[in-house]
Amino acid sequence: MRLLSWNVGGLRAGPGPAGLGALGGDVICLQETRVTRDLLTEPLAMVDGYNSYFSFCRTRSGYSGVATFCKDSATPLAAEEGLSGLLAQPGEGGSVGCYRDLGGFTPQELKALDSEGRAVITRHRICTSAQQETTLTVINVYCPRADPQRPERAAYQAAFYRLLQGRAEALLRDGGHVVILGDINTSHRPIDHCEPGDPKTFGEHPGRRWLDGFLCAPDGQPGQGLFMDTFRLLHPRQPYAFTCWRTDTGARLTNHGTRLDYVLADRALALGELQDARVLPEVPGSDHCPVLAELAATFLPAPRCPPLCTRHMPEFAGTQQKLNRFLVRVERGAGAAGAGRTCRGTGVGRGGTARNRRRLPRGQGDLLSYFRVTQGQLRIVTAQNAPGYRTQELAPDAPGQGGPEPDQSALGHSGQEPFQNVLQHRIQELTQDALERSGQESSQDALRHRAQDLARDALGQNRQALVQDTAGQSSQELAHDALGQNTQALVQDTAGQSSQELVHDALGPSNGLGPEELVMVFSPGDPGPMAASLHSNTARWRAVLPGPEPPPLCPTHREPCALRTVRKPGPNCGRRFYVCARPPGRPGDPRARCDFFHWASRGRS
């Protein structure tokens, strides 16, 4: 038989069901699945050739969790969630038993220890190499981590270790064999750690002291411990056999990690049936790698799956549908792509009411779309310190650009008129008011003031449409459309000015920027002015905000260093420093980082 354990760091984002078959284990124990009951989907729960058993965290979503996948040829006799027995299910095969040695805990403590979904127990019938039938209990466990910043988690870990030991030893004394697979979250010996430090103080860790009493050495006397580390039984002095690495430093490349994952078997089973024990660092997909043990014994499958099996869950057994089956998914872009597109399941087609056919409001666009420069697009670039400074581009489906026309009923509903009507009415109002208020100003000054008011008011609402609407009109046509029959004198004053010059005069000088920097309409073949303006603006911003100073070069590898921040509490907390960007590793490893260190300046960095 082949027993395998793997901390996947999230079942949905990890290897997935397809990766389980490639591992080839008869019993595969996964830890840190980060799946709750409501997030469990059929592809994750129902894997061809396997029956699965999950334990979910009941206190947090997307946290902890374990799952045991058994081949159909290794179907267990019974399966149970948790270590305390409080979560055992009624009926045949719903509990494994042996709870008599758990009297040192209160019911509240047992409930808290099983609330994070850290254990699944399955009991199997096996045939040993001596052709004797017996039972094998497999405990899939994800032990909690002792966070140095949270003292209560260290106490929680110690209590969990005591509960695990009490239940495992009770099962072993009841008869048969017991195997514990999982992430123990403690490296036992200095050989199991990349930076053990002082060997005299290494063993003072509470988790290591617990392992010293729980395990027996390969050459130890009976009674020291009831379980054995299968890997160290076969490879007592193999160094660098790590199973966990830090991903933020790339330590897996240099194999700079720790051994936290174990296959622990009772002494009789390990000495009599163990054939192989390995770590599999070549398997990607998580910050941990799988560990396995091969035994000479074989599984004898049970006739039916226990009640804990996911096949019996109502949502997967066909007796109950999940809530998401009743929800309707809206097609992406349905509100902005086409007027005739509707949501599925609403019962409204093309013959629906105008309210039902109304297009949904356009969602917020990508911020980068305001700064992209592509040929054939219209942009307005104003001075950086002008009020309302922004850079925009015409949407592909804006009116007049070949896209669908806006829904007039929708515009009327929102209290906005088409921009052409707003523009025309605004010009007429400003012109009439100016003619009545002041007869002292010249016709050209009056038109200029009116154009200034018009441009500022209209550009504040829709600068794109103003430039688009006036791009092909002369000032005479613009004034004639706005003033009607009373504009002959004003038209003569502005004769010969293009619409761009008129808008530039209306906006006035802005920090010396020319009209080509304020309003630009360019053709697909001539993007030069826009590119020059953007280059000029970029240079100005860089002069004001130079950004961080370039990182120094590592003197050993001549490569840019990485910027880090001190997180440890103390006088230097929050300060930043430069180190070699390569991953940590053993001394002498050319792939590993060197000893370069340099504090970053407190100014630009």
Content of β-strand: 15-25%
Structural class: alpha+beta
Largest sheet: 7 strands, mixed
Outline type: globular
Pick out the low-confidence regions.
333-417, 461-471, 482-496, 506-525
Q: If helices are DSSP runs of H or I spanning 4 or more residues, what is the number of helices?
A: 18
Keywords: Cytoplasm, DNA damage, DNA repair, DNA-binding, Endonuclease, Hydrolase, Magnesium, Manganese, Metal-binding, Mitochondrion, Nuclease, Nucleus, Zinc, Zinc-finger
InterPro entries: AP_endonuc_1, Endo/exonu/phosph_ase_sf, Endo/exonuclease/phosphatase, Znf_GRF
Cofactor: Mg(2+); Mn(2+)
Site (Interaction with DNA substrate): 288
Can you describe this structure in just a few lines?
By secondary structure, the chain is of the alpha+beta class.
What does it look like?
This protein is α+β, with helices and mostly antiparallel strands. It is 29% helix and 16% strand. It contains 18 helices and 20 strands. It has helices spanning 16-23, 42-45, 107-114, 151-173, 199-202, 206-214, 230-234, 267-273, 314-317, 354-357, 408-413, 419-437, 443-470, 475-483, 488-493, 499-507, 515-518, 528-544, and strands at 2-7, 27-31, 50-55, 66-71, 78-81, 119-127, 133-142, 177-183, 227-229, 244-245, 257-258, 261-266, 274-279, 291-295, 298-300, 379-380, 519-520, 562-565, 576-579, 597-599. The strands form five sheets. Strands 5, 6, 7, 8, 9, 12 and 15 form a seven-stranded mixed β-sheet that branches. Helix 4 (151-173) runs parallel beside helix 6, helix 12 (419-437) runs antiparallel to helix 13 (443-470) and helix 12 (419-437) crosses helix 14 (475-483). The longest helix has 28 residues, at 443-470. The protein is globular and about 110 Å long. The two termini are 57 Å apart. Residues 333-417, 461-471, 482-496 and 506-525 have low confidence and may be disordered. It catalyses: Exonucleolytic cleavage in the 3'- to 5'-direction to yield nucleoside 5'-phosphates. Belongs to the DNA repair enzymes AP/ExoA family. InterPro entries: AP_endonuc_1, Endo/exonu/phosph_ase_sf, Endo/exonuclease/phosphatase, Znf_GRF. Its EC number is 3.1.-.-. It is an enzyme of class 3 (hydrolase).
